[in-house]
Amino acid sequence: MNIQERRLEKGWSQEELARHSGLSTRTIQRIEGGQKAGLESLKCLAAVFETSISALMQEHKMNDTKKPDQSESDENERDAVEHVQKQKAVRIHLLLFALIMPALYVLNIYISPDYLWVIFVAIAWGAALILLFALFAVSGLLGPSWERRQFRKRMRSYDR
Fold first, then answer.
1. Cα(7)–Cα(14) distance, rounded to whole angstroms?
2. Radius of gyration of the chain from its Cα atoms, rounded to whole angstroms
3. pTM of the predicted model as reported, rounded to 2 decimal places
């Protein structure tokens, strides 16, 4: 199902989709007309249609009649987006660890101060985080600028 079919399924005009997604009507027209959508546009559309960016990219790719050399570029772009999303997931786990572990410690001290069960949770969760960090490079913050930097870095590696 392409962007236009998803839009029509919801009963929206291009202007309504533009308003919901925060994109311009002209951008929606271009994407529906077959032009390649940028990462930020795909993120906005994925949020509106409650799907993943990679799913939209795959649909967009299937509906395009592109040259074979552009197909490899699209595959590289999809791979780069997935890589960035995985790195972001690792950082989210770290943030959750940093927020939840102190709360668990306080709960442990309050409920059973004689037995520190929270240590076992911290060791297990910490070991999992270390393994995740070993798989993915660690740099930057979680915001959109970090995602763009990681995406561009990944795309440059395909150009070599």
1. 8
2. 21
3. 0.41
Query: What token pair was written down for 1?
Result: 């199902």
Amino acid at position 77, single letter = E
If you search the block for the tokens 């395009």, which residue do you land on?
Answer: 64
Q: What is the pLDDT of residues 62-105, one digit of tens each?
A: 665 444 455 566 666 776 777 777 778 878 888 999 999 999 99
| Together in a domain, 73 and 101 | yes
Tokens of 62: 């299937």
Q: How many domains does the chain have?
A: 2
Residues 92 and 155 reside in one and the same domain:
yes
Residue 83 to residue 59: CA distance in whole angstroms: 19
Q: Give CA 46 to chain center in angstroms.
A: 10
What integer best gives the mean pLDDT of the chain?
79
Cα of first residue to Cα of last residue in the chain, in angstroms, is 33
Find where tokens 């533009």 sit.
18
12 and 30, same domain (yes or no): yes
Q: Which domain holds residue 10?
A: 3-65
Is the Cβ–Cβ distance between 140 and 77 less than 8 Å?
A: no
Task: Give SS3 for 51.
Answer: coil
Q: Which two tokens stand for residue 57?
A: 């990219």
